Amino acid sequence: MRKLIRFSMMIVLGVPLWTFGFNEGKGKDLPMQQTVSGTVIGTDGAPLSGVSVSVVGSQAATSTNEAGNYSISVQTGATLRFTMIGYASQDLVVSTAALNVTLEPSDQSLEEVVVVGYGTMRRSDLTGAVVTADIEAFREAPNTNILQSVKGTVPGLQIGQTNQAGAEPAIEIRGRNTINGNTSVLIVVDGIIYNGRMGDLNPADIESVNILKDASSKAIYGAQAANGVMLITTKSGKKGKPVISYSTNLASQTPTSDMRLRNAEEKKQIIRDIYYQNAYLAPDYTQPNPDWDFSNTELVPENVRGIEAGTDYDWWGALTNPGYITNHALTVGGGTEKTSYYLSGGFTKQKGFMMNDNYKRNTVRINLSTDISDWLTIGANTFGAFTDYSGIYPNMSAMKLTSPFATPWDENGEYIIYPTGATNIINPFIAAAADNKDLNTRINGTFYGIVKIPQIPGLEYRVNLGNDFLLANYYYSSPYDADLSGSVSKSNQQRYDMTFDNILSYDNRFGDHGISATFVAGYRKNQFESTLAEGTNVSNISLSYNSLEQAEIQRINSDAWKETFLYQMGRINYNFRNTYMLTATLRQDGFSGFSKNNKSALFPSVGASWVLSNESFVSIPKLDYLRLRGTYGVNGNMTTRYSSLARVTTDDNSKYVFGDGSGTAMGQSMGSLSNDNLSWEKTKGVNAGLDFSLFKNRVSGNIDYYNTETTDLLWNVIIPEITGFSVISSNVGRLKNQGVEVSLSTTPVRTEHVKWDVNLNFAKNTNKIMSLLGEDKNNDGREDDLIGSNLFIGKSIGTVYHYQIDGIWQLDDDVMTGYQPGTYRIVDQNNDGKITADNDRVFLGQTEPAYFFGIQSGLTYKNFTFRFFVNAIQGGKNGYLGENVPANVASTGNFANLNTFNYDLWSVSNPTGKYATGWTVPQINPKPYYSRSFVRVQDISLAYQFNSSLISKIGFKDLRLSVSGKNLLTFTKWDGWDPETGQGINSDAYPVMKSFNVGLELSL
C-alpha cells in the first residue's frame, strides 16, 4: 500500500511538473496560427450547411454556410472535427490551408457507445429503455452534485431539490415500486456499485451518466435494481499532448420564496386579534377598546417589557445571510500510444443561507490505463473526497417562534437562554455557539485488468477490484446542553465496501450476424463499525470534546455489521442485419441478509427490437429512422440485513432479579420474531418503445410505455399479543406502476452562424395498490383497506384521505358545536350534524404529480450561446397536493408569546384570511391541502467562447466566460417555502435557493 501511495503521489506531482516544463521549453516555438477553409459535401456531391467544424481539444468552432463553406483559425498540426446529425463524423489533421471534406450518411446517435452495466453497447443495438443524460448543457451552473446537473433532463428520472449546504437530493426513477421497502436507486460508478454520497464525486470528473429504466435493462443487477439504476462513468485521458484545464465559478444564493417573520407592529396586531373580545368593542369588534392594553393578556413579563421598551428584534435577519458557492477544478489529461492518464483536483465551498450552514469539499482523482502488451491492459480509477460539514446551524423552529419583543443577549452581552420565557424555546443563537466538527474522508479505488484472447477474436476477460473506504468523525461540545450542565461527545464511523468481479465478454460479427455475450461472477462484502462516547455534567467545558472523562455522566455505544453478496450473470445479444435485435439476461443473487429459506434469487429478462426503416416495404417520406422495442424482465428489492431474524436486546428492562430482589444481573430478551420464509420484493415489468428520426435527423425522439407489478411487499403484519410481540415482518400484497415517457429533440435552425435546438421531455406515472393483507373482516366482499396506514385498495400510495374544508367559520355564522370563529368549516359529508372520522373523510386527491415536463433550448450565434431550461410538475385533476399547515401552538397564551410567519391568517381584522387561527383548538382540526403544481425556470445561461486565433497568442487553447442563473423564476399558487419540496409555511422547513453565477473555463 505504501508503494502504491508513493507511486500515486509521483504521478500527481510529476506529470503536472513535467507538463509545465514541457510548455516552458516550447514557449519560444509555439505552433503557427493559420486560417483553414474548405467545403463540406455529402456523398451525393451536394453541399452540407450547418456542419459543425471544431478544433479537437479546444472549444473553438464554426459551422458551414448554405454553400457548405467554412473558415476557421487554427494552429498548424491541430485536428479538425466535422460533425453533423445524420452523418458519420471525421477527424482530419491540418496540413494545408484548404481542406475539403465528404461526409457519409449515418445516424450518429445510433452509433454512440452506451454504458449498459458490465460493458458497453451501440445505442442501435439496445432493446431496453437506456437513456444518456445531458450533463454538458448547463455545465456553467453552480452545481455541487452531479445529480443537480441531470435534474429534469431525463423523462422518468426525478431529482429532488436541496435546501442545505452539501445536501443530497432524493432520486426516483419511474415512481415508487414499494410501500415499506427500500426506495434507493442503485448507483454504479465505473462498473462498481457505489454506496457513498453522490456529493463526494466531483461533477467535473464525470464523463457520462446513463439511466437504466426498464426491467430488462435493470435485470443485470438483479435483487438491487427494482428502483432503477444510474451508471456513472468518470473521465479518462486521451491520446496526445497533455491538456491542462481549469474551471471556476462563484454563485450568490438567496431563497426562492420571500418568507419573513412578523415584526413588532404586526405581532401586536395578532395579539389584539387573539384577545379581540377585550381588545375591541362589541358587537362587531372593529373599534379598539381604550381601556385595554397588552398587560391584560397572557403575555409573559419578557414580552411585556419588550413592548414597553419598543423592542423590534429581527431574529430572521440576524441568523440568515445570502449564501454563496465557489467551485474550482484543475485537470490534466493526456496519453501516449500505450498509456493514458487523467488527474484532477477540486475544491468546493458552500455557505448556506442559515448561520453555520457550511460545506467544504476537496477531491483528488487519478485515472490511469496502460497497455502492457497487445493482449494485456491494466488500469486504475481512484479518487479521494475530504468533506467538512462542521458547524451547528440554529434551530429553525426556535428561530421562527422567538418573539420580536425579545433579544438574544442581556445588557452584559450574555446569552438569554429562554428569550420568550418559555423553557421549550431556547435561544437559537446558542446552537450556533456549539463547538462542532463533522469531518469525512472517502478513499475509493477500482483496479482492473483486461486480457484479450488472441486465439479467439472478440473474446476478452476483465477483472475488477473495487474498494471504497469511509471514515466519519463527529465531535461536539456545548456548555448550554443538558440543562446548562454541558455536554460533550465523540463519534467515529468506518465503512469498507469491497467488490470483486470476473467478466468474460465476447463480441464479433459474422456477415449479417452480430453476436455479443457477457458472463459475470462476482463477490461483494460491506462492513461497518461505529463508536460513540458522550457525557454530560461537564466540570471543565473549556476542554471541549478532548476531555470526556470530566463528564459526570458518561455513556458509550458501539455498533457493527457485515453483509456479503454472491452473484452470477449472463447476457446474450444477437443482431441480424442491424434490423432485428434480441437480448436475453439471467442473474442469480445470493445475499447474507436473505432469510434462511430464501438465500438466493433468480432474475430473468428478454428484449427485442425491430428497425422498420430498414425494411423495403417501409417507405415514408422524410423518415430517416424508425424502430420498435419491447422488453420483459424481473427485478428485486432486497430485504434489510436483519429483517428476517429474531433480534435481542440488552436494555435495562432485560435484567434478571435474584434472591430477595436486591440484586440484578444484565440479561437479554427477544425484540422481534424471525421469519425464515421472508423474501425479497419482486417487480415484473414490460416496456414498449418507439424510436424515430425525421427530416435528415433534425427531429428525433422516442416514446416509452411501461407497466410493472411488485409482489411480496415487505410489511409488518399485526399478530396476536399472546405471542409477546405485536408485529412480524412478512410479504404481502401487490402494487402496480404504469406510465408513459416522451422525449423529443429538434433543430429548427442550423446555418453557418446560427444554431437553435429545442428539446422536450414528458413523463407520466401512476401507481395503484392492488392488494394488501387479503383480509375481509367486515364480509362485504371487498378486501379491507389499511386506513390507519393511509393505504387503500385501488388507490395510489400517496392518496390523500382527509376532511374536506369549506372555508372558515365567521363571527356571525351559526358555528357548529365544538368549533369557534376562525376555525375551519368541515363539510359534513353525511349531513348528520356532526363531524366524525368514519363518516366525513373523503378522497381529496394524491401527493404524487400527474405528469412532469421540461423544455430545454439553446441558441448559438457565432461565439455566443444562450440556453434555458424550464422544469414543471403538474397535478392534473387528482391534484398534486401537499399539506400546508401553519404553526398551531394550541393555546392563546402560546400564540401570543411566540412568533409566526406573516401568512394570511384569519382574524377579526382579516375575516377573509386563507388560514385558520393558530390559537384555537376545535374538536377536529383538519390539515389544509393545496396544489403544488409549478412551472420553474430552472436554469438559464449565457456563454461567450473566445476565438482561438486571439487566445493562442497568450498560450491558451480555450477560454470561455459565462453567466448563469438557477431557480430564478417559479410560477405557482403554493404558499410557503417551495412547491417542489412540499414545505409550506410550517416552522421547521428550510428554503430552496436561487443562484446567480459567473464562471470561467480555460485550457492550455
TrEMBL record:
Presence of keyword Nuclease: no
Transmembrane segments: none
TonB-dependent receptor plug domain sequence ranges: 124-229
Metal-binding in keyword set: no
Main subcellular location of this protein, as a coarse class: membrane
UniProt-listed SUPFAM superfamilies: Carboxypeptidase regulatory domain-like, Porins
GO CC list: cell outer membrane
Any Pfam family: Plug
Lipid bilayer topology: Multi-pass membrane protein
UniProt entry keywords in alphabetical sequence: Cell outer membrane, Membrane, Transmembrane, Transmembrane beta strand, Transport
Subcellular location: Cell outer membrane
Domain of life: Bacteria
Family as reported in the entry's similarity comment: Belongs to the TonB-dependent receptor family.
Protein name: TonB-linked outer membrane protein, SusC/RagA family
Protein source organism: Parapedobacter indicus
Classification lineage: Bacteria, Pseudomonadati, Bacteroidota, Sphingobacteriia, Sphingobacteriales
